[in-house]
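Amino acids appear as letters; backbone shape is given numerically. Here is one record.
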Amino acid sequence: MNDSQPNVLLIHAHDIGQYLGCYGVDIETPHVDALADAGALFERHFATAPQCSPSRGSLMTGRVPHVNGLMGLAHGDWEIHEDERILPQYLSDAGYETHLFGLQHISQDTDRLEYDHVHSEGNLYPGVSPAVHQVNRARNVASVVSSFLEGGAYEDPFFASIGFFECHRAEEENGRFGFDADYYGADDPEDVRPLPYLPDRRGHRHDLGEMHGMMYALDDGVGTILEALADSGLEKETLVIFTTEHGIAFPRAKGTCYDAGLEAALVMRYPGVIEAGERYDDLLSNVDVLPTLLELLDIDIPDVIDGRSFADRITDGDDGDYEPRERVFGEMTWHDMYNPVRAIRTDRYKYIRNFWHLPTVYLPADVFASESGREVRETDGTPARQYEELYDLRDAPQEDDNVVYEPRYQDVRQDLSRELYEWMDETDDPLLDGPVVPGDYDEIQSWPHESA
């Protein structure tokens, strides 16, 4: 490892999953791809939750949502517990100057996060009109970050959390949720490769073409920042992490515990330390990022962290104390409605336990009110989901063949069901005690009325 602590840039984006050229998708993202070529890419990196705030909370705390308390959206009366420590606090204690650029979305109270400096942060609900999010657009955030790097107005070492609004859907004048093609442009739907887990229909292609416009803007933002980093002479002494929080905002992705909902990009570049040009297919959870970063920076990892470091896996070729994961867990509790789900994924199998009367596939509000959502409302928006789902990922990688009741899979079903329960029990998952009330439950129960 380097003799001195590196600077750290953590670049994170909305609703992208692994929809990037470097992950084999038919889209041009040259700047993120170049970052991957110069660093390490993780092919099977999954978020703890298929939604924004809970996933981001896990990234920043190294703890799963039902442990850190952020089981719903930060603008929806959910907060991480008061005693939770987050990444900038760990780094501040280690001598880092901490900076926040753009979006964070793990707390309505930015002061709670204790960044030393907050630049251009717009902590707004991501479903409102696109005009509200000018401050968090990749172009604008990248411009502020570039000025910061080129101006040298920082103390070494520094940590910068850089959050882009892209590629979150936003409400348009017609009431539908799209990708603001008037601002970003769009690709011709006929030129877009369909998603493997959705039927090839006009609405899906239309929305994918529009999302491409946002993707190009996001990639340009990454390129602007990396160019400024190089021009400032900081490239060799900076650890750059690019990640996303969950799958794209399409049916069977965002808001579901299928792979398309939990998948998240993870690219890390640290010249001279992380082996360049490597692709790793280890099972990883985004709670693993924080302990890995702490180990790379020679900072003690607290015992309370749910994640495990993979630093030894990616540094000098000697795996050291690295223990590969045999399983990762996913969960969802609240979004814009109650959707309690827990899941376990191994190399071959995915087992999902649903704890409520739920539609076949949950569609978050922004997906439901989209062209893509309209294509599947009749088939996926009806309340018919089974309480248990089991998928053999070798035979059904798109998780479209539930084998939970097939006799030859009963041993697998029982084993994964037991492991999921044991994990929930060991981590004091409140869902085991019954339905989880929302953060504004007191307000719901408050009912001033006069007795008759």
About this structure: The first helix runs from residue 30 to 37. The chain has 14 helices and 14 strands. The radius of gyration is 21 Å. The first strand starts at residue 7 and ends at 13.
